[in-house]
Each structure stands twice: as C-alpha cells, then as structure tokens.
Amino acid sequence: MRLRPLIFLALAFILTCAGTTNLANAANDELYKIVDKDGNITFSDTSPKNGAEVVQLKTTNVQQGYKSNESTRFKQQPKSDAQKKGKKAKTDYQIQITAPHEGQKIGPVQKSIDIQVSSANPLLPEHRIQFLLNGQAIGSPSPALNIQVPLSIKMRGKKSVTAILLDAQGQRVSHSQTVNFYIIRPGGN
After folding, report:
1. Residue 106 within any structural domain of the chain
2. Do 50 and 97 reside in the same domain of the chain?
3. What are the tens digits of pLDDT across the range 73-93?
4. Is residue 165 part of a domain?
5. What value, to the nearest 5°, has the Cα angle with vertex 24 and ends 23 and 25?
6. Is residue 51 part of a domain?
7. What is the C-alpha end-to-end distance of the chain, expressed in Å?
8. pTM over 0.70
9. Which one of 28, 75, 98, 188 is most buried, by most CB atoms within 10 A?
C-alpha cells in the first residue's frame, strides 16, 4: 500500500516537531514499528513482546530564528570627538516611518490609516512632527508619533507619506524616508 510510507513520514514529522529529533541516539529512547497480522502499522516507544522493527529517525537540522530587537532598528552612531571629551554634542534625531509599510495595500473596508514614526533618540518635549501625504501637510505639527488619517471612497491608488521633525521654532531638524502604499477602492465616482 502507498499509505504506509506516508503514515511513517507523517509520524516522523510529528515527532520531530515535538522536539524528539534524535530518538535513536538518546539513552533508552527507541521507536518501534509494529505490523500486525492484518498489515496495520503501529508505532510505539514500548518494545512489544513479539518482534518489531526498530525505527531509526534521521537527525533534523534546526536553525535558530532571527530575534529582532527594537534597538537594532537604527544603527548606533560612533561617538564624536566632543562626546569622547565629555562635551554635549548635537543629537542626531533620526525618524523613520514604521506604518504603513512600503508597498502596503489598504483594502476597501478600511476607513482610516494609521501613520506611525519612531525615533532613534528620544525626542525633546518641544519637538513636533508634521506628516505629509503626497507632499501635502496633514493637519498641524504635533508631538504625537502617529496620526490617523480618514480615507474617503475617492481616495485610491498610489500614495506616499513622509514625516518631518520640527523644533520649537518650526525649523526642520530631520525627516523620514518616503513610504509608498496603495489604497484599493472600487471604481466609479
């Protein structure tokens, strides 16, 4: 029958996923394949009284997953000469748009979009962020790191968003990358 190899492979996969990746090499951990008089196959970790075949499972190659760390999002800048001498240096404020993602598609049921930024360094209380949608300001500069923009049925197609960090005098301190996203809406007016 063709199902027997599939059953064996399925069991081997399940045991591998459960963390028993090297049963044959572990002390007293053996897997037995038992075929009864009707040809039914059973797997067990207990040795049967009548003969059974010992199953040798191959060792699975396992790779650790990548663990993201919020601090790795921005590259650490090397210390300047002023910082090495203990003097206060001008802080480099890098801001980055974290939502929406580049190329993200916004479906027809979504009524608004949340635009978010993050900063490599803590912002000062007097800092304000101006969000731009297709180069046009959205509302007024705000200390908030996000803004929710309502979407109308007429808003469709490719859109771009940028954030500008302003100081207390309204002067540009930094700006984010431009992120392009797509608003999908039904046709018509």
Report:
1. yes
2. no
3. 445 555 555 455 555 446 778
4. yes
5. 95
6. yes
7. 61
8. no
9. 98
